[in-house]
Structures are given as C-alpha cells and as structure tokens.
Amino acid sequence: MSEPELLNTRQMAQFAARGFLRFDGAVPAELNQGFLDDIGRAGKHAGGHASEDSNENEPANIEELYPRIMASSTIPVVPAGTPFCKTYPADSALGRILALPILSGAIRSLVGENCVFDHHFLHIAFPPNALSKPPRSQNTHQDSTIDPRRAFDIQILYYPHAVTSNMGGTRFVPGTHLRIVSEAAIARYQNMVGQQHVVCAAGTLLIMHHGLWHGGGANTSQALRYMFKIRLCPTAPQIRLWDTSDLDEEPAQRPIFWLDHEPDPQSVQTILTTPEPWQEADTGRLEYLNRIRFWRYLIDDESFDADYWLTRVENEPV
Amino acid sequence: MSLRQQVLVLYLKSSALDTEVAAWATYDGTGHTRHMAGDTDTPPYRTGLGALKDGWRLIQASSLQPHAAGDEFRTSYLKYEFFFEKLIETDAPASENTDE
Prior knowledge:
The complex is a heterodimer of chains A (318) and B (100). Chain A is of the alpha+beta class.
C-alpha cells in the first residue's frame, strides 16, 4: 500500500478558510468503473455510459433501483462509530479508492488516522424520464444538526462518473462552514453569490467540512447521476496532522491596508483573509476572526493572527 | 381576474437598501414560473434599490439585533433580509395542484 500523501499547509489554510478541498479526476478510471460495477450496473443510465450487460428496455426508477443496489452491491452496512480502518474491505472498489495516497493523506491530515465512520450513502439523482413530476433541486442546507463544535467532521463526496452541467451536481457555497445554523433553516437562501455547482471529470473528490452549506441540483439530463458520500469523525484533537514542514512557525506581522506591494497570495494570512463574494460587509470580517481562531486550533498556537484582526479585539492592556 | 402574489427575498450586504445583493429567493404565486435552489447564479438586481425601481414593493425588512454578549463573533443566518412583493392580475383559477 502506498504511503498517504499528507496535505500541505497551503491546502490546510484553504480548507480552514473555504471549508472544502477538491481533487479533480483523482480516482483512476479502473476504480471508477469498479465502483459503478459494484453498485449493480444500472446500465446505460449510469453517467450516460452504456454497460454491456444492460437491458435497454429496463426502466430505472426509485422504487426498483435502490433495493436492487442494496441486494447486489458490496457497499457494506456499517454501524456508526466503526473505526474507519475496519469499514471497507481492502480488496473492494471502495477500499481501493480510499487507499489512494491522495485521499488517505487528506483523510489523515483532516481527521487523523484513527478516525471513525459516521455514515455513508449512495446519492442518486434521477432524470426527468424516471420521475412522475419535474425534477427539483434540494434546498440549501447544512448537514446533520446545528453544531457549534470547534472540532470538525469531514464529508467525502465521490463522483464516479463525469458530471455535466445539466446533471445537477452538488451545489455548495464556499466559506459558509463556520456559520452556526440549524440544518434546513437556510432553505430560504435559494441562491448565493459565489455558489458553485460541481461539474467534473469522473473520479473527482470533494472533501467538505461538515458545516459547509450545500444542496443537490436538479438532474435535467438523460442519465442517472451518482455520488457516494462518506462522513468521518476525528477521535483526537485535529492539531498539526498534515505535513507541517512548510509551516511558518513565527509569521511576522505585516502592513495592513496601506501597502506598497500585493500581499503574498500563498501565505496563510492572505488565504485566511480572502473574502467570499456572498459575505456581508460586517460579518465578513467576523468570518476572518473565526477562520483565524480555527487556524489557532489546527496549529495549537493561540498567538497566531492575520493582519491584527484578533489582536485588535483581544487587546486589554493592564 | 384575480390577484396572485410574487415574492422576492433579497439578502443584502448591509442594512442599507442600496447595497449589493448577497443572496436571493423568488416565489411565483401565479404559477407561470418555477424557481428552485441553484437555478441561477446571477442576482436579479444589483441592489435592493434596484428592486424598488423595478416595481417591487418592500413589505418586510429585518431589524438590527445586537450581538449576544460574550458571543459577538458568532456568525449564523444572513442578517439583512428584505421581502418584496408584486401583485399580479391573472385569469388562472385557484390551483388545486398539491405538488407545491
């Protein structure tokens, strides 16, 4: 088994600031096809690609497809709390995908090597010809429940086939992950400036902080859209789990606003203070504070700051 | 002829109506159009004032609430929520469509 490729500091800062990381086409074609075969060969509907064994006259509908997949696939039924290392057989398609260095390294960097399994699910978006009414997108929501923790779970979203723009790939809003809201209470936010829709190559992985706002899109294509999601939880503080060889241990304060040069876009300070287009004028600044506090947790250093945002409000001279 | 309500919800970047739109939602009681999450990436107006100029009537604006003491940095729901309406005359009968 190849060694995990741990995330670097820049990637961790991006995750801290925006709540997600994306790895396009990271899973090889052989494994993608292995997964699609594993879930029971939905035939020509799967991502628009024909299967040799497909019955082209066989309709795909919700009532038939899920029971068929549950009966024939090797996706295990796993209790919540199972150690992640014991969740998937190593020789299964999912086991091999999760062992890919890029993915195992990301998992280890974010939730540690002794993380536990929460749940998984195979999400299927049906095209119009498989539904009794027009397809609708899923309202924007934050998963599970309101969750004020500092520790975080991750959700791995795996797209085993190419997702086109009309297939309704996952919609998500970068940078929303640190807001404390109650699940579907945010359904009223139909659209937000800067929202993204997953359009991707087969084998793409999206790793999300558990708090990221998102929703499934409406599938108006002719093909079924599949996405497999796994939620993983840490069992230890998520401190310096990534490759910290590039971490600046004593970043210097830098000039603010009145500058004679552009700030380094790759620096942790810049990444943590880059705004999102949906952010409100005042709470956007609070997002910086919360990102910096999150980063302090990740590096276990309460002295860290970016552009004096926290130092300013913590200044109580005695 | 009867009246149906169209509702536009704009989330602005500050409490001022003439600031930029950050998020939005549209509901059409005439049934002529159907809106859903993620159906457009471009706001219908650049600012809340733009909606007024296009004939939308402001019917509700969120009030300014103090941040909770000791929890001033917590972020949650979008703060600056404005509800607008248009009343549209239509000859469509009252809908018995239970899908909505």
